[in-house]
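ERR on first pass: missing label on line 2. Operator R.T. fixed the label and resubmitted. Corrected input:
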Amino acid sequence: MNVEKILKTDKKMPLESRTLIHLSLVHNKVGDIINSTLRPFEVSTQQFNVLRILRGQKGKPANLSTLNERMVTKMSNTTRLVDKLILKEYVDRTVCPSNRRKVEIRITEKGEKVLLQMDAAMSNAEKEILENLTESDLKNFNELLDKF
Amino acid sequence: MNVEKILKTDKKMPLESRTLIHLSLVHNKVGDIINSTLRPFEVSTQQFNVLRILRGQKGKPANLSTLNERMVTKMSNTTRLVDKLILKEYVDRTVCPSNRRKVEIRITEKGEKVLLQMDAAMSNAEKEILENLTESDLKNFNELLDKF
DNA sequence: CTACAATTATTGTATATACAAATGTAAGAA
DNA sequence: TTCTTACATTTGTATATACAATAATTGTAG
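pass 2 clean. output:
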């Protein structure tokens, strides 16, 4: 990915701005690939993330705040995100008996099943996205990301 | 930025997935800072980008496809993005006389003026975002981004 | 010249997201 | 108890974005 070519400019950009633009371009490219990987399953990236988090709970239900902590979205969106997953019967939501302000969200059998299929597709997508990076590149890259 | 801490998990993630999540987290953080930097000026990041591109044209008008090429948005959104900038009187749009399918979009005096103020704010934001990265980090980082 | 295809931009519509306000529940003080 | 405050989630609303359909103009084959 060449920034100048994509932006169709030959102007010399300051390294700082160039870095942030570059980051954005890469993020977009990655996002596009992930979106189109998940499209056949009719879930968004965020919905996929919710499903993964719920599976990680290993039966233990998650409430909205927990989901929120581990995601990028805002609270209000998480509610509606879960609404959509419920419609697809991938998760269920019940009021928490010990504290009725809270909700308990769990992945369903059906949810687990489709999630497995998504995993396979996503794993391929990841390989495709990162095909030009060696393991040492990846480590290096993560270290740099840590500095942000 | 520590991925595991942010996701509040102690699970060992595969390096590949971790990298993509890490990238997303950093991108979000950067986006948040940029958004709040631009908020006082009541423009979105995309609107800011349009203004910068138009200034780069140095008087030469840009049409929608040109803007599009240099941005991440879709065509239809660019139309509405420009609509909003016109409302603020930061740009103007006229039908291209030589090819009436096209439009000519220019930054106005007023637009140039506020853009200068935004530049100053953004330059500070950039410094803040990148304060922990050395010049060699930045070069290194850009090289790695090129591999995506 | 006419008909059809290609180009450029806009509009319609559904979905997504941000932010603030509202709802319902719990916990603590007077 | 009742009042107040804090908590967890949901709803309302404005704005943003994606994608498909449409409109307007130009280019071109016959």
